[in-house]
Each structure stands twice: as structure tokens, then as C-alpha cells.
Amino acid sequence: MRVMGVDPGLTRCGLSVVEGGLGRKVTALDVDVVRTPTELDLAHRLLRVADAAEHWMDTHKPEAVAIERVFAQHNVRTAMGTAQAGGVIALAAARRGIPVAFHTPSEVKAAVTGNGSADKAQVTAMVTRILGLQVAPKPADAADALALAICHCWRAPLLDRMAKAEAQAAEVRRRYTEKLAEQRKAVRG
């Protein structure tokens, strides 16, 4: 499975593409950080992020896009910019029919390091080890983008099986409810 990992941000947006193989084998195909100047207005900064992400999607043809879910930051302005950057990337993926998954920072850290509260240095070290890289990806946004892609490669099969099981359970529940309604109708009738 080819996954594009995205660590969204306005100032720095990490982009990566990894290829998942058998088991937990993952290979890095590309990683970079898109930077936008703070003096640009918001709309043009978002346009630069979207343009870069679209270029990556068109070039690398990912089967899924994994984006970090913004869930809490002390600086509301930073959180808004991060969410907006993630939004334009999700929109670009949706326009191409590419499924988008959002993963929380703690899910990503737990998947990559085994510890949901790992620090950036631990995440970077594990990403470097998992991918067999000679040099740690820098800056942290690049390592985070790779971690997101790795997390999705490892979690996607489980999430898919869970979704199928939930759909199957809902179908069994629907049939059972119909059968009960028919039996009640027959008893009254």
C-alpha cells in the first residue's frame, strides 16, 4: 500500500510517501517539507500547501493519505492554520478519489514507538530505524510525516477489518430486527 503522510502546517508542512510491504515492512519513497512565508496572506499560503500536496499526489499516486488530526494546541491561531492546511490537503485527495485517514498524534506515536506520549526525538529515532535510513529525517515535520504514513500502513488493515465487522454486525442486527417485527406481526394477526 502506498501512503502519503502529512504533518500539516502553514509555516512548515511535512509530506512523505511510503510503500508498505508484507508484515511491517515499510519503505520510504520521498519526504520533504513545504514552507510558506509568514508575510503572505492566509489564502496564498494555503494555496501553496495545496499546490505542493496536489503535485505529490499526482506524482506519487498514493492509495491513501494519512493526515495528523489537530486536536489540541495551546495557540489557537496555530491550531487553526494547522487544521486549515490539513483541510486543503484532504480536499485535494478527495477530488482525486484518494481515501483520507486522520490519526491523532498519540496514535502515531504509539504505532511507531509503542508509547503514545513519546517525544519528537523518540519518534524521529524510530522512524529512522523502521525505514533503515542512514540519516534521521530533518526537520521534525519530515519525520512526523513519515511517522504518519508508517502508522497508517500498519493500522489500515486493522481499521479495514473492523469496519467490515461493524458493517456485518449491522446487517445481522437489521435482519434480526426485521425477523422480530415479522414474528410480532404474525402473533397479532
Automatic annotation (TrEMBL):
Class of the enzyme per the UniProt entry, highest EC level: hydrolase
Binding site for Mg(2+) 1: 7, 141
Active site: 7, 68, 141
One BP term from GO: DNA recombination
GO CC annotation, single: cytoplasm
Residues reported to bind Mg(2+) 2: 68
Oligomeric form and interacting partners: Homodimer which binds Holliday junction (HJ) DNA. The HJ becomes 2-fold symmetrical on binding to RuvC with unstacked arms; it has a different conformation from HJ DNA in complex with RuvA. In the full resolvosome a probable DNA-RuvA(4)-RuvB(12)-RuvC(2) complex forms which resolves the HJ.
Family listed: Belongs to the RuvC family.
Stored PANTHER family: CROSSOVER JUNCTION ENDODEOXYRIBONUCLEASE RUVC
Protein's name in the database: Crossover junction endodeoxyribonuclease RuvC
